[in-house]
Amino acid sequence: MLGCTSASSLVAEELDSVNSSENAALEASTASETSAITTGTRAETATATFAGGCFWCMEQPFDVLPGVSQTTSGYTGGSIEDPTYYQVSEGNTGHVEAMQVQYDPAQVSYETLLDTFWHNIDPLDEEGQFCDKGSQYRAAIFYDTPEQQALATETKQTVADKFHQSVATDILPSAAFYPAEDYHQDYYQTRPLRYKVYRFGCGRDQRLSDLWGADAPSHD
User: Which CATH architecture has domain 42-210?
Assistant: First the structure.
């Protein structure tokens, strides 16, 4: 089984020095952004939770949306409290790799979040997502409210109609969400070269292009 980190191990160790300088710049930027946030007025936020396979690949599509204030990689849907990455990756916890989105409904709608979700997954894959196979990588939408459930169900039917076949993505009530270890957060920013090698090796963008055509997301 090819896991969320397997393909990235192909990157040479000398990339760490490049990542170190990138991390320094990122930390400075983050500190500036944090300072700006603490001096401003906090907007009303809502939460959306999605599972789309390896959580490294699911943060960036939402981070770029105006109105999204935070994305957090983590684990949900299982019965074990505070699971570790290694426990979840074994596939025996019932948890999936997932991502929570904090957003301002006045700036970005839940429908937009759903559209972003669908176009960043393979909704037809019953065994996981892309190169990552196993129950811990299955796609799912976890709803917080009846409105979220209804919209998720409606868009799932739209996707099924588009492909003329059943959609494997589950729609489930939200459950306890456990943030993943720090090194998984914002992985596409903190380890960009390793992330790109993993993403390419997993064939994610090729499959998305095959599925969605001109509507496939760009991750250049």
Answer: 2-Layer Sandwich (3.30)
